[in-house]
Structure formats: C-alpha cells, structure tokens
Design goal:
Keywords: Hydrolase. With 343 residues, the chain is mainly beta. The chain has helices spanning 276-279, 319-328, and strands spanning 31-32, 41-44, 47-58, 61-70, 75-82, 89-94, 97-98, 111-118, 121-129, 133-140, 146-149, 157-162, 171-177, 188-193, 200-206, 217-220, 225-227, 230-241, 244-254, 262-265, 287-294, 300-307, 311-318. 4% of the residues lie in helices and 46% in strands. The strands form 5 sheets. It has a 5-stranded antiparallel beta sheet, with no helix packed on it. It has a 5-stranded mixed beta sheet with strand order 7-11-10-9-8, with no helix packed on it. The model has no long low-confidence stretch (mean pLDDT 96). The chain binds beta-D-mannopyranose.
C-alpha cells in the first residue's frame, strides 16, 4: 500500500510523542503514553475530575478546553495551558461565555467539549441544556472572549464535532441525536451550514450495531483529519454489559468530498479500556476520544481521550499505520457506503 499522508495540517514539530513500544501484545496501531494519565483528580480546589477534553496548538504551546466536574457534581468547561501538551496548568475560573452583545451568558452546565479551528476562528462545542441535552457552541479568536452562537440544534443531541474546513463551500458538523438520559441508541449524522448559524441538509453517516464493541451507540470523537485516503475519523463505540456500558475508540475513513459516505470502517476497536485508569474511576470502562494533534511532516498523531470519566489519557499513532489498519480490517454496514439523502 502507498504511504498515507496528512493533508492541510502544517508542521507541529513539538507534538507530544513516544515511539510505539516494541513489546506491545496487540496489533492495534494505537498505543498509550507511558506516563498516563496526563490530567485527573482535583487539579484545582473547584474541580473534582478532568476528563473528556479538547486540545489545539496555541502560541508556542497548547491550549485546551477541559471538561471539569465541579465539586458540586455539575460539569463545566475550563481552559488549560501547556508548553508540551502533557503538563497542564488549569484555570480556576470557568470559561467566560457571553452573548453576541458581550453580556455574560453562562450555560447551566457544559460537558464533552470539542475545540476546532476553522479558518481564523476557534469553535468550542459542548453538550449543554436547552430544554434537554443539546449542543452549545461558541467562538473565539483570542481565548479571552468567547461569544456564543445561539442554539444551533434543537434537543436532544450531543457529540457535535466540526470539520476543520469547509467542504464544497459549506461548514460541516457531525452530531448524535439522543434522548435525555444515558441514551441506549445513537448514530452519527452530518449537517451542513453556509454560515455556522443555520444547519440543514442532514445526512446519516454511520449507525451503531454490527461488531459488539459498537453495538449500542456511536458518536464522533475528534475533528476529522484530512488524509490522502479521505477523512480519518476517530469515534467512540459503546457496548452493553451486565455491569453497564463500555466505551471504546474506533476509526473510519470518509469520502473527502462527501463525508456522509463511509469508505472504510474498522471492525475492531482501536483502543478499549484496559489500563487501571481506564477500567477504574467515576465511571469504569470508558475511553472517550475528543481531540487529536497531528504533524503533517511526520504523520504523527496524538489522541486525547477521557478515561473512566476521571482522567485524560494520551495515545499515539501514525496516519499511515492507522489508515492501513482501518482499511485492512474494514467491514461496512448497511448503507455506510452510500451518500444518503433520505428524503
Ligand atoms: C456519555 C457522556 C460522556 C461520558 C460517557 C460515559 O453519555 O456523558 O461524557 O464519558 O457517557 O459515562
């Protein structure tokens, strides 16, 4: 197979990195940082745990929007700062959201943030409350002012993830329609918008089912990575056991011009809870990817994932090894490979 390259990512020579250990027993192309977790319990007096969180390069280091579970149990989002993407300083104050006139407009709660740069703007997307679980969105250019965009979707919906660029002239966003609780179903859908305000032309991308690790529900994880083989998507898949849900990470490759069309979908998980900080914590047996960093020069990818709703873990792969693994273990499910208008 020809070597797969990352497109339009630029250089990130200081990407957090460790080589794949020689003694790994698994064949999965994703391996963990040996000093995991990189964030966890009680980082500030206000926050009990930090987990499902998103990171981007910023100035001479990195900035993160972190899911911090407050000591009253209510989730919120906080900024983190790091020189190396591994050691983090966590702000004690919540992200100060405002409305479009600059007036304070804090969500009641906010969890599972994603942080994606599109053109010259950074978008934070989270799950909040709008008469039920739904998608919150805000934009910033300086990480000082955070302007909310009025409710992009009606409830119930979560796991919204933006594409890092327009496709055929429109912005694209994944989401996962749900219900009010620990939803026992869920597929990934794609929506498009000319202006980041009005979203429509919704299409179905991938369903749950098939292999057992993703049999109950799935949701987009990190912003898709543009590659020479298509959009590389890391997502979470959920299985049900007699002790509750188990969250694993999967991978798929989507058509570069029509990303509702799945080209390859890995039948095996890429990462599943195995380490003590993944199998034990506030919610055991959860790995929940929310962000990646990538270096276009080397093809290195660093994946940030929530572990057991308690910690942030870091894992690594290369674009060539992960795309080829997905391709060589691909099983498509009913309708995955079609562009689906469904009307
Ligand atoms: C999902 C979300 C995630 C969480 C996961 C496992 O429904 O609430 O924030 O990590 O459950 O508890």
């Amino acid at each position: 197979m020809s070597e797969v390259k990352i497109l339009n990512a630029g250089s990130l020579p200081n990407i957090p990195w460790q080589d794949r250990p020689a003694d790994l027993k698994t064949e999965t192309p994703v391996w963990r940082y040996s000093e995991n977790p990189v964030l966890g319990r009680n980082p500030t007096p206000e926050i009990a745990r930090i987990f499902n969180s998103a990171v981007v390069p910023w100035e001479d280091g990195y900035i993160a929007v972190l899911r911090g579970e407050q000591v009253n149990g209510v989730p919120y989002v906080y900024l983190g700062h790091s020189k190396d993407g591994i050691h983090w300083d966590v702000e004690r104050e919540k992200v100060p959201f405002t409305d479009e006139d600059g007036n304070p407009m804090m969500p009641h709660y906010a969890y599972d943030p994603r942080l994606v740069k599109v053109e010259d703007t950074y978008y934070i997307i989270w799950c909040g409350d709008f008469h039920g679980a739904s998608i919150g969105m805000a934009k910033t250019k300086d990480f000082k002012t955070f302007t909310r965009l009025e409710n992009p979707f009606i409830p119930f919906n979560r796991n919204a993830v933006l594409f890092p660029r327009k496709i055929n002239g429109t912005f694209r966003l994944f989401s996962r329609p749900s219900d009010s609780g620990h939803t026992p179903f869920g597929d990934i859908f794609l929506s498009e918008s000319p202006d980041m305000v009005f979203w429509g032309k919704h299409r179905h991308v991938m369903g749950s089912g098939g292999e057992w690790w993703q049999g109950v529900k799935i949701g987009a994880g990190a912003a898709p990575i543009e590659t020479t083989e298509g959009w590389l998507l890391f997502y979470h898949g959920v299985s049900s056991t007699c002790n509750g849900f188990v969250y694993s990470m999967g991978g798929a490759i989507l058509d570069i011009n029509e990303p509702s069309k799945v080209l390859y979908r890995c039948a095996n998980y890429l990462l599943t809870p195995e380490e003590p900080y993944e199998v034990s914590g506030f919610v055991p047996n959860v790995v929940f990817p929310c962000a990646t960093l990538q270096d276009g020069d080397t093809g290195r990818i660093a994946i940030y994932y929530g572990a057991a709703d308690t910690h942030v873990g870091l894992a690594f792969t290369t674009v060539d090894s992960v795309v080829n693994y997905i391709k060589s273990h691909s099983v498509l499910h009913y309708g995955d490979d079609e562009a689906k208008h469904n009307y």
